[in-house]
Structure formats: C-alpha cells, structure tokens
Design goal:
The protein has 315 residues and is α/β, with parallel strands linked by helices. The chain folds into two domains: 112 residues, 3-Layer(aba) Sandwich (Rossmann fold), CATH 3.40.50; 178 residues, Rossmann fold (3-Layer(aba) Sandwich). The protein is 28% helix and 15% strand. It has nine helices and twelve strands. The strands form two sheets. Strands 8-7-6-9-10-11-12 form a seven-stranded parallel β-sheet, with helices on one face. Helix 7 links the parallel strand 9 and strand 10. Helix 4 crosses helix 6. It is elongated, with a radius of gyration of 22 Å. This is D-2-hydroxyacid dehydrogenase. InterPro entries: D-isomer_DH_NAD-bd, NAD(P)-bd_dom_sf. Keywords: NAD, Oxidoreductase.
C-alpha cells in the first residue's frame, strides 16, 4: 500500500505504519518526491490551497481515501473532486478545545469589559463604573451543536449559563438546556444574550446571519463567529453595529481572508476581530496525527472510519 504524506508530519507518522507501506512525500506546493500513480491514501495538511489539492489528485488516479486535518472541507468539494468519489474524512474534534476556550474568552472579554479596561490602563485613567456583568443565568444560543458546539457548551455551563443549541437532528445533549431543530433557533433569538456560530458552511448556511436575524436580537446581544466568514452577512453586521442594533460582535473569521487593511470591518464600533486563530494550539498537531493513524489502522483492517464527510451535505 502506498500513502501520500505531507512533509510536515511524515516523520511522526511513518514509525506507526506497517513495514511494507510505501510513502510519497508532498510539500506545501504540491511537489511529490516520487511516483504517486498507485497511491491509495492521501493525508493533506493545514492551509492546503485548492490548486495544490487538484495537482496531487491528478498525480494519484488510484486514490481511494483522502484525510484532511481541517474540520471545514467545503472548499474542497468542487465538481471535479466530487466526481472522484473518494472517501473523505476530516479533523472534526481536534480543534474543539482551543476554539471553545476562545469563545469563553470572547464572552468574558465582553462581560467584564476587558478591552475597555485595557484602554483605560493605556490612558493611565483610574475609572470605575463600567457596565461589568456576570454570566450567571445569561442565555447562550449555539447555532451548530456538533463537536465544537458541545465543547463550548461544556465550558459555558460551568459559569451557570442557560444554553440553547441547534442541530439538524435535535436530541438531548449534555450541558444544553434545550436542543432545537436546524431552523427553530430563530424563535429563540429574542432570548439570546450571546449567539455563537459553530455550524459548517454549506449552501443552506451561507449568509445565514442576515439583517432579519440581527434585527431580531436584543440590543444587548453579542454575536460570536468561530465557524466560517460567509455565514455572516458582513454588510448587515456592519450596519447592525454602526446603528446599535446589538451590543457587539467577535469575528475570528471573515469572508475574504486575510482581511485587507482597506476593509471597513477594522473600524466598526464594538467589533473584536481576531485572525482566524481560535483553533490554534500546540496540541492540535498531535491530535491530528493520532486521528489519522487510528483511521489508517481502521482502513487497513476494514473497520468504519471516523469523521467520514457527507460530501453532499458538505460536512
């Protein structure tokens, strides 16, 4: 059996492979160090560009399984990719802990007025009386109660919050006070103090957070997006924050990344922007390697693979 492995992690994976396994290395530009025409498995790595993916696939006509370390794989699912009828697995779960911690950081930053307090320190001003809040009994609406959403709920619940989640097939989940269907969350917007977007980007979720949603939120609500930028209608959000429909927002992802210096998002009031870094952690690499190795042994022994992507659904 032959595998295509990224040079970034090949040395850490190869000791766990059977002795008769052959490996072709690929760099970030898609350059292969050998013949991949008979390769059966391809592990891609983070920040994979679509032209590089297409080049590797063209070099491996007998490929059967592609594992991507990303949780979001919607950008891979082009018509030509779908035509290959590959098994696609993803890295769902490996980023859940750091992303969930980042969400809690956003919530606490807003509730405790940390940015304002830091600005006062910079100005050497001793000012009390800021509208500092606690989290007990606030309502957190998590749109997308999958692995990341559940990790967020587990941490938010420790603060005494009320948590509502949404998912395509609702079912009771630990740490959620209520789980509703894919579109039922709209009826709970008026109750939400914090709205966290943790749903995959699909045709159904593109532009999901639009003007109607933002106008339905209470004036004190705070929006957090750690999913994909295109889920939020950015002009509508700019309008909502500029005109004060909601209290603020935190975006770890935007439609066009990297965000250009000319983007109006930089100067929108009460908007906290971070550079798509909520999933960063030294432990993510090791979790990603362990997931692939486990799936590889499942693959060669005929067991069901973890994290198989429904390519029609997009996740």
């Amino acid at each position: 059996m032959k595998l295509i492995l990224p040079i970034e992690v090949a040395a850490e994976i190869e000791p766990h492979l059977p002795s008769d396994t052959k490996v072709v290395l690929v760099d970030s530009d898609g350059k292969l160090d050998g013949d991949a025409s008979d390769a059966e498995i391809y592990l891609s790595w983070f920040l994979l560009k679509l032209p590089v993916l297409q080049s590797v696939l063209a070099s491996a006509p007998n490929l059967r399984w592609h594992h991507a370390p990303n949780a979001g794989v919607n950008h891979f699912l082009t018509p030509s990719y779908l035509e290959r009828d590959l098994i696609l697995t993803n890295g769902a779960g490996v980023h859940a802990i750091p992303i969930a911690e980042f969400v809690i950081a956003y919530i606490l930053s807003h509730a405790k007025q940390l940015l304002e307090l830091k600005a006062l320190q910079t100005e050497r001003r001793w000012q009390r009386g800021l509208a500092i809040q606690e989290l007990t009994d606030v309502t957190v609406l998590i749109i997308g109660a999958g692995g990341i959403g559940q990790a967020i709920a587990a941490r938010a619940k420790a603060f005494g919050t009320r948590i509502i989640g949404s998912r395509r097939q609702p079912q009771p989940l630990a740490n959620f006070d209520q789980v509703v269907g894919a579109d039922e969350w709209r009826s709970h917007l008026g109750e939400a103090d914090y709205v966290v977007i943790a749903t995959p980007l699909t045709a159904e979720t593109k532009g999901l957070i639009d003007e109607d949603v933002l106008r339905s939120l209470p004036a004190h609500a705070y929006l957090i997006n750690i999913a994909r930028g295109a889920i939020v209608d950015e002009p509508a959000l700019i309008k909502a924050l500029t005109e004060g429909w909601i209290a603020g927002a935190a975006l770890d992802t935007v439609i066009n990344e990297p965000l250009t210096p000319e983007s109006p998002l930089w100067t929108v009031p009460n908007l906290f922007i971070t550079p798509h870094c909520s999933g960063h952690s030294p432990k993510v690499k090791q979790r990603s390697i362990e997931l692939f190795i486990d799936n590889f042994h499942r693959y060669i022994t005929g067991q069901p693979l973890r994290n198989v992507v429904d390519q029609q659904a997009g996740y």
